[in-house]
Design brief:
The protein has 298 residues and is α/β, with parallel strands linked by helices. The protein has 13 helices and 7 strands. The chain has a 7-stranded parallel β-sheet, with helices on both faces. Helix 2 packs parallel to helix 3 and helix 4 packs across helix 6. The termini are far apart. Bound molecules: nicotinamide-adenine-dinucleotide. The site of nicotinamide-adenine-dinucleotide has 30 residues, from helix 1 and helix 7.
């Protein structure tokens, strides 16, 4: 075996949850090209030739249980990609509780063997999770699907930011438990990426950070540019990496936090949990003032 083969997926079975379009579809295509047998779960039709498609609605517990049993067998990598926009009914179940339930079902059935890896898609909107960790820890202790979903609603976390922070908290807090079983778990936190989700609400998603990208002469990411780190993190090449939230935002967050790009500094500090919403409002006045470089949606 050549050293570079550690990046490949030959002989591996890969599950992409939410792989019909966007970043999940790109990850499915890339893993397949890397040698994987690919299973895609989604509520939308799956077009990737050669992939096994399984219908799934993450907002319904029974649908998750049926999908896990239809998948059967073992999976060596799980990409938890599906996600919906702010205001979508059931966002707490689709973006976090359902994904976690699916992964925990696979674990309970011994369908994820040692040496496997899981990678979620969170968001730069989830990077302030440490500030909210004590609260989010409560939901990490609730394993029942309906109870956890209700907790998210009751505690004001049934939002895009709340669900993305919950993913980051889950990955960080649970990585040791997973590694006891020989499994790694990570997340990526993309910035604005040109996908159907973003195009459905382009001002909020692709308008975000446009001033930053304009100064650099770069575009929003393509889905495949997010699939590359996803597929790397679940490959054997990333065997030393677990429990991390990898920021794939073309440097917006770092430039904002350090003041290298001053227009985004306050929003960066808010999203990355350096200041509270109250402190932000005190200094900035309102959220809309920073809309073009906010990063709040992505
Ligand atoms: N596009 C961006 O700018 C951006 C930035 C940061 C994070 N994200 C996150 O990236 C992930 C992928 O999104 P995308 O931008 O590729 O969008 P997308 O809409 O192309 O992909 C999302 C996929 O999730 C599926 N899905 C939605 N609801 C579902 C449900 N109830 N059950 C099962 N599947 C469901 C969709 O059918 C779709 O295939 C999401 O978690 C999103 O929050 C997106």
């Amino acid at each position: 075996m050549a050293l570079f083969d550690a990046f490949r997926y030959d002989g591996k079975r890969v599950l992409v949850v939410g792989g019909a379009t966007g970043m999940g579809a790109a990850a499915a295509e890339l893993a397949q090209e890397g040698g994987a047998e690919v299973v895609v779960m989604d509520r939308a039709p799956v077009t990737l030739e050669g992939a096994t498609a399984i219908e799934l609605n993450l907002a319904e517990r029974g649908s998750i249980e049926r999908a896990v049993s239809a998948c059967g067998g073992r999976v060596h990598a799980v990409f938890s990609c599906a996600g919906v926009d702010e205001g979508t009914p059931g966002i707490e179940r689709i973006n976090f509780v359902g994904h976690r339930y699916l992964v925990e079902q696979l674990l309970a059935n011994d369908q994820i063997p040692r040496g496997s890896a899981i990678c979620f898609i969170s968001s730069t909107a989830g990077m302030g999770w440490e500030r909210n960790f004590e609260l989010l820890s409560e939901v990490l202790d609730i394993h029942d699907y309906d109870e956890a979903a209700q907790w998210m609603v009751d505690h004001g976390q049934a939002s895009y930011m709340g669900t993305k922070q919950a993913i980051c908290a889950y990955v960080a807090r649970e990585c040791m438990r997973f590694l006891k079983r020989g499994i790694r778990i990570n997340a990526i936190c993309p910035g604005p990426t040109d996908t159907p989700l973003a195009r459905a609400n382009p001002e909020a998603w692709l308008g975000t950070g446009s001033d930053y990208r304009g100064e650099l002469g770069i575009e929003a990411s393509q889905p495949m540019e997010q699939a590359f780190p996803l597929v790397f993190l679940c490959s054997d090449a990333a065997s030393a990496i677990t429990g991390i939230t990898l920021v794939s935002d073309a440097g917006w967050g770092s430039s904002a936090l350090t003041g290298a790009f001053p227009p985004a500094e306050m929003m960066g500090k808010l999203l990355f949990g350096r200041i509270s919403i109250e402190e932000f409002m005190e200094q900035v006045g309102d959220l809309s003032a920073f809309a073009p470089s906010s990063g709040a949606e992505a």
